[in-house]
Amino acid sequence: MLVLVAPGQGAQSPGFLTPWLELPGLADRLGAWSDVVELDLIAYGTTAGADEIRDTAVAQPLLVAAALAAAEALGAAPDVLAGHSVGEFAAAALAGVLTPEQALGLVRERAQAMARAAATTETGMTAVLGGVEEDVLAAIEKHGLTPANINGAGQIVAGGTLEQLAAFKDDAPARARLIPLKVAGAFHTDHMASAVESLRAAAAAVEPADPSVTLLSNADGQAVASGAEFLQRLIKQVSNPVRWDSCMETMAALGVTGMIELLPGGTLTGLAKRGLRGVRTAALKTPDDLDAARELIQ
Fold this sequence. Notes:
Blueprint: E1 2-6, H1 26-37, H2 41-46, H3 50-54, H4 56-74, E2 80-83, H5 87-94, H6 100-120, E3 123-130, H7 133-142, E4 146-152, E5 155-161, H8 162-170, E6 176-180, H9 193-203, E7 214-215, H10 227-236, H11 244-254, E8 258-261, H12 267-275, E9 280-283, H13 289-297
Parallel strand pairs: 1-2, 1-8, 2-7, 8-9
Antiparallel strand pairs: 3-5, 3-6, 4-5
Helix pairs in contact: 1-4, 4-5, 4-6, 5-6, 6-9, 9-10
């Protein structure tokens, strides 16, 4: 049983799209999607620097477009689809809930709204690696932070104000390593409430379809059979924690045996190696990885 997964913000790196432009038709596809998001996706994916593509308003459309383009190049028919954070929009498009153009249009609004929300208060995020999960969650709550990403495999990301994160750093949970993340704000926390309303307004004109394959939600890891419900979850997810640990638990319960992570792959397959032991994985980083992914499918 095959699951395709799409990574979230932070997976991008300068020039990651460059080798993919050699594939027939891919540059044309990205050019058309650039018009939808009103960004030059090809330039941002090839020549832009790290700071430019770290910008939330750029990173999110770029990641979703890259995942969709890689999925088209792969040509796989998965049994299960899931995405991490903004990667859920790519998963929704691949499942037929949204068209690629609808997904990218909503992501454009999401990204801009989240960037505006992040600019109102100085907030950030810190990854917590290791430690006892109960102790880590208690320490996060103690300092008024939100466990914005519970990723499984010993990884939790805390979000909140910079002052709260500084106090958390000085009072870190035992046997845990803290890594400040280079992000614009505290995503998937209450600090993104205004972005939720902006995305809800943009989504009002969209008529989603029901998913054609099993589609998992970040809210609780469960499969969602209604396209309308999944769209509402996408909206609320902007200010709610990502439960990737629950997504992996559902994958295991469904009997998933293979995982392919779409471009730019690596993060989610890394988590799977610890959280889904025995599941074969392949990460799409360059077109050279397509052969390994197709071999996994066979």
